[in-house]
Fold this sequence. Notes:
The protein is α/β, with parallel strands linked by helices and 312 residues long. The chain has helices spanning 46-53, 75-78, 97-106, 114-120, 136-148, 166-181, 193-199, 217-222, 241-249, 271-284, 298-306, and strands at 6-17, 20-31, 35-39, 61-66, 82-85, 154-158, 185-190, 202-207, 210-215, 227-233, 254-259, 262-267, 288-295.
Amino acid sequence: MHDADLAVVVDDLVMRYGDKVAVDGLSLTVERASITAVLGPNGAGKTTTLETCEGFRKPQSGSVRVLGLDPVRDRRALLPRIGVMLQGSGAWSGARALEMLAHVAKLHSDPLDIGMLADRLGLHECGRTPYRRLSGGQQQRLGLAMAIVGRPELVFVDEPTAGMDPQARRTTWKLLQELRADGVTVVLTTHYMDEAERLADHIHIVDHGRLIASGSPIALTRGGASTTIRLVVTKPFPPGAPESLRAALGPDIEVTALDELSLVVSGPADASTLAKVSGWCDEQGVLPESLTLGQRTLEDVFLELTGRELQP
Ligand SMILES: Nc1ncnc2c1ncn2[C@@H]1O[C@H](COP(=O)(O)OP(=O)(O)OP(=O)(O)O)[C@@H](O)[C@H]1O
């Protein structure tokens, strides 16, 4: 990939808070006019990475380039070209929603029509409401409007749909897809697998400040095991259950305990594997509450890579 096609280049970034390493040698790139999701559990280092790309933090080690510029040194040149949607923006607490949007619009030379934007994001219903009185979902929608009103080339959206109802989530997804169609690059962080799977052209999975997997949703879910079986039982498993089930299923199959009542079987699993799991339950005297065979999801990819579930 030619550098000119890349909107963001993060190279071996290290960020610490005191002794705590928040970002641990992270490298990733974002193609222009794409939607790229940075996915990871709480505390993975997503927000810190985004804040560094936005120029709020200086890389302690490694480097970050955004639209070919250094976000700290070239801040003045970069700011009019990027939009940032932060998680919460309490500084505005007394200002009314549409006043805030109008104020931000005035800072740009060629802003979008704020009436149209307020319509699209359903902001008229709360246009005169002070920021601190907005619901979580309304604050998110206003934050998104403020991030894009200046027609940025690149937008960073941190958990854009956290706290939104299903309809607002769909509206937000559609808006982000329209931005991409207009050539805007969208970088978003999310905890939601369905959001990343549905929206993103490219996904970076981050854990403990490191990149652990990267690719399109299809490439990520196609690789490795193609199917998984989830087993949930009514009483805690006997000791050594994962090992005993693994022995029953053979060497190609991976068994991961999620908690004392559930485990995941992944590998080339098929109906006969399902029957073997069921037979094993019978032998062990455990009663399945549910036993399901399904396609591998991003959640399964994360589980295979880390042995943990992604969603809190
Ligand atoms: N200002 C700070 N001071 C000290 N530690 C911090 C600070 N901000 C973040 N951290 C720590 O750095 C690590 C990475 O945090 P960060 O917010 O970047 O992760 P995240 O992936 O965005 O998490 P979340 O999904 O919860 O927003 C966490 O362990 C967090 O507790």
